[in-house]
Write a structure and sequence with these properties.
With 448 residues, the chain is mainly beta. The protein has two helices and 31 strands. Strands 1, 4, 6, 7, 10 and 11 form a six-stranded mixed beta sheet that branches.
């Protein structure tokens, strides 16, 4: 009789556990058609940033599994009404498709959280609300490594606000590599492209199969031109070899142009004139010239930007001030927004169907119509007014052709000797594992 009761109790507990698993919500249902592309859908949200807290600039949003520095999501909201925002996270495959595992398998606590940390702008001529959120936190904690997306939406609706990519690292593999001039018979490729090659050391157990690992290669924190699902070309006794036969090629581009808008109290080498109004500030920048034939070297931050109103007077090279650490300023609600006037000298407009854009981290490396320049026949220049927050920016002038392709060598140049950052992300999915684990990373520079 006692054994029968134990069996009944076991069956009851098992059925209850199964019911709980079935009833655990998976928020993915309402977002099943969402794109995992890193993108902001509400045009009233400005200066979106998602970075590791207080680390070197150019660092991608990577958490260390089980510890390390948090990520900080921040943005400014210009909507008339105070937003009621919630967010959730989803695990993704190595090539950024939603994983088949359910949320309770990789999130420790709750699957959704309200965005509660916000502050109205202080003493700024243009009012806004600044949001800032750290991840992980007491409600959102992650159990598995790999790729993730953060999905921000309007609470109680399916109104999508933004999708931001990030990663969780469980470091198990060592990677070594370098950026080289391509070994190609084509002169244009040798002069204009950079090639990334790398080796992955096998762990001591040496039970990793070549078909179970893959890599993603990203240039300058730009997901748009990343190389996904790169496979090892050869296997040696102690390591795997990636990148032979010219497979990992990137445009060298040119060094980014610098724009320092941290100090709005006086003109600077970048700022020609500042006009203040009760409801805003206009900043006229010095006219930019074509750099197509200018082969000089420039110090830049590889397309990134830093929001700050602080000037380090102890540093003799003002350009280098923001290069070391991208500090997450907790007082970003005090910074002003500016209407900045860009102009680019051009004796003639481009052929019909071609357009000029400001491009870089400032535009999320997209061709954004808010940064599309128009030609002024009276002044023989392309020009645009852009709405920017106090800070330090990098940008390029790129051209979109009739087919939508981006060209870097019309007003800039495109060469192999340009300094760029590269990040390699290594994924492992052994037989029987239902997700791609992120098991190694490496940062490279084309200069060292």
């Amino acid at each position: 009789m006692q054994l029968s009761l134990q069996k009944q109790l076991f069956i009851q507990i098992s059925l209850t556990a199964m019911m709980i698993l079935v009833l655990i919500p998976n928020s993915w249902g309402q977002w099943e058609k969402i794109s995992t592309e890193d993108k902001t859908y509400d045009s009233n949200l400005k200066t979106v940033q998602f970075d590791v807290k207080n680390v070197q600039i150019g660092t991608p949003p990577i958490l260390k599994l089980g510890g390390g520095l948090p990520l900080v999501l921040s943005f400014d909201d210009f909507n008339e009404d105070l937003g009621d925002y919630e967010y959730t996270v989803f695990h993704c495959t190595a090539d950024w498709k939603i994983s088949s595992i359910r949320q309770f398998e990789y999130i420790k606590e709750f699957t959704t959280r309200s965005l509660m940390h916000y502050q109205s702008s202080m003493n700024s001529r243009v009012p806004y609300v600044h949001y800032q959120e750290e991840i992980p936190n007491e409600q959102i904690q992650l159990k598995l490594s790999g790729n993730y997306i953060l999905v921000l939406y309007e609470a109680g609706t399916e109104n999508l606000i933004m999708v931001k990519r990030f990663m969780v690292l469980d470091h198990k593999f060592s990677i070594t590599g370098e950026v080289e001039t391509p070994n190609s018979p084509e002169v244009d490729i040798r002069n204009s492209y950079q090639e990334v090659i790398f080796n992955v050391s096998k762990p001591e157990a040496n039970d990793v199969m070549i078909q179970d690992i893959s890599a993603t290669i990203m240039q300058n924190a730009n997901w748009k031109n990343a190389i996904y699902n790169a496979k090892a070309d050869f296997e040696r006794r102690e390591y795997f070899i990636f990148g032979t036969f010219g497979k990992h090629l990137f445009n060298g581009m040119s060094e980014f142009r610098n724009l320092d808008l941290r100090n709005i109290n006086d003109v600077s080498p970048d700022v020609k004139n500042i006009t203040r109004f009760n409801d805003g500030i206009e900043v006229e920048l010095f006219k930019d010239l074509s750099r197509q034939n200018n082969r000089g070297f420039y110090t830049d931050v590889n397309g990134d930007f830093v929001i700050s109103d602080r000037i380090n007077t102890n540093n003799t090279d003002s350009i280098l001030v923001p290069l070391i650490t991208k500090e997450i300023d907790e007082f970003q609600y005090r910074n002003e927004y500016l209407d900045a006037f860009f102009s680019l000298e051009a004796p003639f407009p481009l052929p019909k169907g071609e357009s000029v854009y400001i491009w870089g981290g400032i535009t999320n490396f997209e061709l954004n119509d808010n940064f599309k320049l128009e030609y002024n026949y009276d002044y023989n220049q392309y020009e645009i007014w852009s709405f920017l927050k106090q800070g330090f920016y990098n940008y390029l002038y790129v051209v979109k052709d009739k087919k939508g392709n981006i060209h870097f060598d019309v007003f800039e140049h495109n060469r192999t000797l340009t300094e760029n950052f590269y990040h390699i992300f290594l994924y492992h999915k052994p037989p029987g594992q239902r997700y791609d684990a992120l098991v190694g990373t490496l940062k490279l520079s084309s200069f060292y």
